[in-house]
Specification:
- The complex is a heterotetramer, with two copies of chain A (330 residues) and two copies of chain B (326 residues).
- By secondary structure, chain A is an alpha/beta fold.
- In chain A, 44% of the residues lie in helices and 10% in strands.
- Chain B is globular and about 60 Å long.
- In chain B, helix 3 packs parallel to helix 4.
- The N and C termini of chain B lie far apart (42 Å).
- Classes of the chains: A alpha/beta (330), B alpha/beta (326).
- Chains in contact: A-B, A-C, A-D, B-C, B-D, C-D.
- Chains B and D meet through helix 4, helix 6 and helix 11 of B and helix 4, helix 6 and helix 11 of D.
- The structure holds thiamine diphosphate (2 copies) and magnesium ion (2 copies).
- One thiamine diphosphate (TPP) sits at the interface of chains A and D.
- One thiamine diphosphate sits at the interface of chains A and D.
Chain lengths: 330, 326, 330, 326
C-alpha cells in the first residue's frame, strides 16, 4: 500500500490521532465507571467497550456544526467524540444536577443536549429512530443539508419502530443514516436468535435504500461507510442502512451476569480484535504513535478523568422539589 | 360569523394555522389528495402542497416522525385516521411525547398535536367507534382536549397547535356533520385546561364532554318544561382536569350526574368522581352518579346492539330526572 | 405448450373449474353487496373485486382440513373458497345473529370461524400477522404439519407488526405464509408513497426467508407460488413471503370516493387484466368452459345469492341485551 | 410451607404450572438461559427446554404470537422485561387480546398471561419504574392482577395461567427480594376478581394494592401503638374491581385513604373513589383521600428526586393519622 488507508480516505494524521484519543478516552471513562459502580458509588453502568472504534469512526464522518445525532445507550464514545466531555459523562453517572442530558433525572447512557445537537433519548429501544426521520423531514422542508445519524443494536432492529421509520425515510428520500451496532448479543440473546438474515444490511432493500455491512472494529472502514452515507444524504439521495459488526466486551450492564449465557473463551477471542488494540497497532505501524506518546495521552486522559470524577462526586444533586418541574411549559 | 359544522370548523382551524405559521404542517394517512377519510384536511393539500403529507400506513412512525419534527422546531399536526388506530403509536405518545420535556430537564419539548376521530353511533363497530381518552388520562406531560361544538373545535384546535406541549385532540366523528353553529371567521383561541359552563341550573349538575354535551343540552331543554333546571359543565380538557370548575359545578346543585360515552369503569369520569369525593363530599345531596356505556369491549355493528351501547339524549334525560327526584 | 398450465401444476380440470366458480361467486356476491348498500339496506361494503384470482389461487393451495387462514378484510373470495358460504357472507353484511364470524358484532369483512379454521380478525391492520406466527409456533411445539397463511395489503406491510412477526417466524423457522395482496393503493395512497422497494418480496431477505412476487391476476401462478411455500412449511423449511400484484377495481369501501385520487382511465386499463376476464378466457381457450356452461354457472350462483339475500334480510338480529355477553368466560 | 421471597413464589408458580399442563409455555426476552433479567424464570429452561422461549426483541410480537398460540389452545405466559416496555404491545393487548372473545361472539378466546415487573424505588429512573395498570383499567376483556405478598403471588399467578381470559400480571420489582413469607409447596390458587381484607380496624380504612400493602401494614402496626386502628383492603385485582369489598371496607370506618404508588390523576384509585362516591357517600365521615405519586411523567434517577416521588411507609402513616384525627 503506497498511501496509508486514512490518507486515502482524506483523513490527516491529526485526524486519526484525534480519533484515537476519543477511543482511549471513552474506554478509560468506561473503566472508571465500572470501578465506581463496584465501589458502590454509582448505582448503574452501561458500557461502550468494544464499540469505540465504530462509534468514533461514525461520529468522525459527521459535521459537528450541523448534523444531528440520535444515539442509544451504548454510544458513549460516539457522543463524546461529538462533543460531550468527560465531566458531562461523570455528572450523569453520579446523577448530579449538572448532568447536561437530564439533570440527573435519567439513567446514565440517556444522552441529550440541544446545544450539541444530540437529541434526547429514552430507554425503550428504537423510539429514537422515527425521531431521526422527523428531524430529517424538517430539514428537508426547510431546505437544509444536514444529515441525522441514529444508532441502535442488532436486537433492537427487530422492533416495529425501526421498520416503520426506515420505510418512511425510504419513501421520502430523507437524509437519515441508520447505524446498527451489531455486537452479537442483545443482553443474553445471541444474534442468531434475534435475526434470521445474514446481515442487518439485508434489510435495506426492503426500504429501497443502500445497505452496507462493515467491520466495526475498524474505525476507518466505518468512517468510510458513514462518509458515503453522509454524502448521499446531503445530496438528497436518501437514507442508508449501515451495519457495523463488533462485539460487546463487557456484560450488558452492571446488572447483568454474562457468565450465565456465554463462554469466557468467546469474550477472550473477541478482545484480540478489539478496535483499541488494532487501531493502536495501525497507528504505531504507520509511525504516527510512539510508545511515549501513547503513555502521555493515557496519562493526560487519566488526569482528566480523575478531576471529572472528583467534580462530579462533589457536585450537588438537584433539589428534591425540582422533581415537580418541567412537566409542561411553565 | 358563519354557520358551519364541527368538521368545517376543524378544517378552518387547520387552514388558518398553516397560513399563520409556516412551521405548521400536517402528516397522516390519506390527508393529502383525499383530504382525509372524513375530509378534515380537504383543500389543504391543494393550498399547501407538501406541507400536507401522506405518510405510509404506520401510526407509530406518524407519531414518532411528528415528535422528531416537533423537537426540531416544527409544529406538526398528526392525524390518526381513527382514534382506535392510535394504539400502535402508544409507545411514541406515552414514552416519548409525554416525557421528553421532563426527561431532558426542559432542554427539549414537543409541540405536537395529534388529531383523532373518536366515538360511535355511525355503524363503525368495535374498531371505528372507541373512545380512547381513558387510556391517556394518567400520563403527565400529555393534554387531552375534546371539543363539544364547532366554536370550541376551532378555538381549541388552534390553541392545541400553538401549545408548547403535546396535545391529543379527539374529535367526535358523529359530531362532524351533526353539530352546526356560528363560528367566527377571524382568529381566536380558547384556553386549554379550562372547563366551560354551558348553562346555569339549580337542580342537577351534569358534567360531561364531547358529543354528550349536545345531548345533555337537549335533555336539559326538555326537562326545563317539566320544571327541572340543569347545570351543565363541559370539561373540554379531560386531562389534566379543571378541578376548580368541577368542584364549583358539583357544589352548585349538590346532585351530580357524570356522563361519558366511553365505558364506565376507569373512564375519565372516575377521576371527576374522585375529585368530588375529595373536595366537596359534604356539599352533596345525592350520591354521585355516572352514566356511561356498558363495560363491554366496544360497540357492536348491528343496529340494535349499537343502540344498546350508546349513551343517548333519552338516557341522559332519565338520569337527570331520577337525580332531581332523589 | 403441450400440457396445459394447470395440469403441469397438478390441478385437474375439475379443480380449475372449481376455482373459476369460487371466483365468479365472490365477484357476484360482491356486486350484490354494492347494490344492497346503494339501496340503503346495508351500511357498509368492503370489496374483493380485482383480488379474486389471487385469493382463490392461494386458498386452493391450502389443505382445508388442517391449515389455518388468518385473512384480512378484503379476502372474501379467499374465505369463501376456504369454506364460508354465500349465506354466511350475506348474514354478516346484514349484521344478523347468524353471522358466523361475530353474530353481527363486527363490520363485514372481519372473518372468523373456529370450525373452518379461519381465525377471527379485527380492523387495525396486520395485528393478525403475529397471530399466524403464534398458531404456527403452537403447531411446531405439538409436532403438527399444518401451515398458516396470513394476508394483508401492501400499505399494511409498513406496520411494525408485520416486521416483528416476519422476523419471529424467520428466526424460529415457522410454517407461515405471508401473503401480501399488492393492489397498488392503500385507500388513496399509491404504492410509491407507501414503499420505496421494488417489490414487497424484497423484504424477505431481511427475515432470512424466501420471497417471491407473482402476477396476482393469474390464479395459477399464485397457486404455484403458495403451493411451494406450503411444501416448504410442511417440511419445516420455514416461512415464505409472497407478493401477489393486482389492482383494486372498486373504491376502497362504500365510504370512499376514489375519484378524488385516481383516474378513471387507470381503473379501466386494470379491468382489462382482471383475473375474472383472463381466467375465463384461459378456460375457454383450453376448452374447459363453453358459453352455455358459463351461463349456467352464473345463473346457479345468482339464484344462490338471491336466496341468501332473502334469508339474511329476513333473519333476526341478536337481542339487544346480548350486547352484554361474552366479555369474559361465563 | 417454605419461606420464600416474592420472586421465588413466582418462579415456583411457573414451574408447577408447566409441570401440571404441557400447554403452558413461556416466551419473552432473555427468559431462557439467562432466566430473565430478574431471574423469575431461572432454572425453567434447564427443566423445560424449548417451552421457555427466548424471543427476538419485539414486544408486539411477544404479545401477538402469544395471542395466536392462546387462540390455538396453548396457555402462553408472556414476559415483558419491564412493564414500561409493554407499550409497543398495547395494540395487541387492547385491540386483540381484550376483544377476541367478544368480537367473535365467544367462538375464540385468549387464555394468555402477560407478566411484567413494575414499580420503582430501585434506581430504575423514568423507564424502569413505571406503574402501567392505569392505562389498562378501562379495557373490558382484560383482567389486571397485582399481588402484594409471596403467598398471593403464587396463588394468583397460577390462577391467571388457568384463567380462560387474558390477564395482565404486574409484579412489583422492589417486592421481588424485599417481601418474604410462608408459601405452601403444594398446589393452590386464589380467586381473580376478589379483594382481600388484610386486617380489620375501626378508625381508618386503607385501600391499596401491590407493594403499598406492605407499607400500609407497617404503618398500621406503628399507629396501633398510638391507638389508631386501621382497616386494610388489598385490591389484588385492580380491574375489574371488587365493588362489594370496596364498599364494605369504606363503610367499616367511614374514613378512607386510597393509596397507590402510581401518579394520582387517572389512577386506578380514581375508580375506587368513584365507586365509593356512588355507593356509600353518606356513610363517610371524612372526604375520601388519595395518596399517590405526584403527577410528573415518572420517577427520576437521582436518589433525592426518586425519594420525592415515592409513596413510602412514612407518607402513608401521616396520611392515616391525619384522617384519624379528622
Ligand atoms: C422496548 C424495549 N424492550 C426491552 C428493553 C430491555 N432491553 C434493554 S437493552 C436490551 C437488549 C438490546 O440489545 P441490542 O439491540 O442488540 O443492543 P446492545 O445492548 O447489544 O448494544 C433489552 C432487551 C428495552 N430497553 N426496550
Ligand atoms: C392500524 C390501522 N391504521 C389505519 C387503518 C385504516 N385503514 C383501513 S384500510 C387502510 C388501507 C390499507 O391498504 P392496504 O394495506 O394496501 O390494503 P388494501 O385495502 O389496499 O387491500 C387503512 C389506512 C387501519 N385499519 N388500521
Ligand atoms: Mg446487541
Ligand atoms: Mg393496497
Amino acid at each position: 500500500m503506497s498511501a496509508s488507508k486514512h490518507a486515502q480516505l482524506g483523513l490527516s494524521d491529526t485526524d486519526v490521532l484525534y480519533m484515537y484519543e476519543s477511543m482511549i478516552r471513552a474506554r478509560k471513562v468506561d473503566e472508571r465507571l465500572w470501578l465506581l459502580n463496584r465501589a458502590g458509588k454509582i448505582p448503574f453502568v452501561i458500557s461502550c467497550q468494544g464499540h469505540e472504534g465504530m462509534q468514533v469512526g461514525a461520529a468522525m464522518a459527521l459535521d459537528g456544526k450541523k448534523d444531528y445525532l440520535l444515539p442509544y445507550y451504548r454510544d458513549m464514545a460516539m457522543v463524546m467524540h461529538f462533543g460531550m466531555t468527560t465531566e458531562n459523562i461523570l455528572m450523569a453517572n453520579f446523577a448530579k444536577a449538572e448532568d447536561i442530558s437530564s439533570g440527573g433525572r435519567q439513567m446514565p447512557g440517556h444522552y441529550g443536549s440541544k446545544a450539541l445537537r444530540i437529541v434526547t433519548g429514552s430507554s425503550p429501544v428504537t423510539t429514537q429512530v422515527p425521531h431521526a426521520v422527523g428531524y430529517a423531514l424538517a430539514g428537508k422542508m426547510e431546505g437544509k443539508d444536514f444529515v441525522c445519524l441514529t444508532s441502535f443494536g442488532e436486537g433492537s432492529s427487530n422492533q416495529g419502530d425501526f421498520h416503520e421509520a426506515a420505510n418512511f425515510a425510504g419513501v421520502h428520500d430523507l437524509p437519515v443514516i441508520f447505524f446498527c451496532e451489531n455486537n452479537k448479543y442483545a443482553i443474553s440473546t445471541p444474534a442468531d436468535r434475534q435475526l434470521a438474515c445474514e446481515s442487518i444490511a439485508d434489510r435495506a432493500a426492503g426500504y429501497g435504500m443502500d445497505g452496507v455491512s462493515v467491520d466495526g472494529n475498524d474505525p476507518l472502514a466505518v468512517y468510510e461507510a458513514v462518509s458515503r452515507a453522509v454524502e448521499r444524504g446531503r445530496k438528497g439521495e436518501g437514507p442508508t442502512l449501515i451495519e457495523a459488526v463488533s462485539y460487546r466486551l463487557t456484560a450488558h450492564s452492571s446488572d447483568d451476569n454474562e457468565l450465565t449465557y456465554r463462554e469466557a473463551e468467546e469474550v477472550k477471542a473477541a478482545k484480540e480484535k478489539d478496535s483499541i488494540v488494532t487501531f493502536t497497532k495501525y497507528l504505531k505501524d504507520a509511525k504516527l504513535l510512539t510508545d511515549e506518546q501513547e503513555e502521555t495521552i493515557h496519562k493526560q486522559i487519566q488526569t482528566e478523568i480523575d478531576e471529572a470524577t472528583d467534580h462530579a462526586e462533589q457536585a450537588a444533586y438537584a433539589d428534591a422539589e425540582s422533581a415537580m418541574l418541567h412537566v409542561y411549559d411553565q | 360569523m358563519a354557520m358551519m359544522n364541527y368538521l368545517g370548523a376543524i378544517n378552518l382551524a387547520l387552514k388558518e394555522e398553516m397560513e399563520r405559521d409556516e412551521k405548521v404542517f400536517i402528516l397522516g394517512e390519506d390527508v393529502g389528495k383525499r383530504g382525509g377519510v372524513f375530509l378534515a384536511t380537504e383543500g389543504l393539500y391543494e393550498q399547501f402542497g407538501d406541507r400536507v403529507l401522506d405518510t405510509p400506513l404506520s401510526e407509530s412512525a406518524i407519531a414518532g416522525v411528528g415528535i422528531g419534527a416537533a423537537m426540531y422546531g416544527m409544529r406538526p399536526v398528526a392525524e390518526m385516521q381513527f382514534a382506535d388506530f392510535m394504539l400502535p403509536a402508544v409507545n411514541q405518545i406515552v414514552s416519548e411525547a409525554a416525557k421528553i420535556r421532563y426527561r431532558s430537564n426542559n432542554d427539549f419539548h414537543v409541540p405536537l398535536t395529534v388529531r383523532a376521530p373518536y366515538g360511535g353511533g355511525v355503524h363503525g363497530a368495535l374498531y371505528h367507534s372507541q373512545s380512547m381518552e381513558a387510556m391517556f388520562n394518567s400520563i403527565p406531560g400529555l393534554k387531552i382536549v375534546i371539543p363539544s361544538s364547532p366554536y370550541d373545535a376551532k378555538g381549541l384546535l388552534k390553541a392545541a397547535i400553538r401549545d408548547e406541549d403535546p396535545v391529543l385532540f379527539f374529535e367526535h366523528k358523529r359530531a362532524y356533520r351533526l353539530l352546526k353553529g356560528e363560528v367566527p371567521e377571524e382568529d381566536y383561541t380558547l384556553p386549554i385546561g379550562k372547563a366551560a359552563l354551558k348553562q346555569e341550573g339549580e337542580d342537577v349538575t351534569v358534567i360531561t364532554y364531547g358529543l354528550s354535551v349536545h345531548f345533555a343540552e337537549q335533555a336539559a331543554k326538555e326537562l326545563e318544561e317539566t320544571g327541572i333546571s340543569t347545570h351543565i359543565l363541559d370539561l373540554r380538557t379531560v386531562y389534566p382536569m379543571d378541578r376548580d370548575a368541577i368542584v364549583d359545578a358539583a357544589k352548585k346543585t349538590g346532585k351530580v350526574l357524570l356522563v361519558t360515552d366511553d365505558n364506565k369503569e376507569g373512564s375519565v369520569m372516575s377521576e371527576v368522581a374522585a375529585i368530588i369525593a375529595e373536595e366537596c363530599l359534604f356539599d352533596l345531596d345525592a350520591p354521585v352518579e355516572r352514566l356511561a356505556a356498558p363495560d363491554v369491549p366496544a360497540m357492536p355493528y348491528a343496529s340494535p346492539l349499537e343502540k344498546q351501547f350508546l349513551v343517548t339524549k333519552d338516557k341522559i334525560q332519565s338520569a337527570i330526572q331520577e337525580l332531581a327526584e332523589f
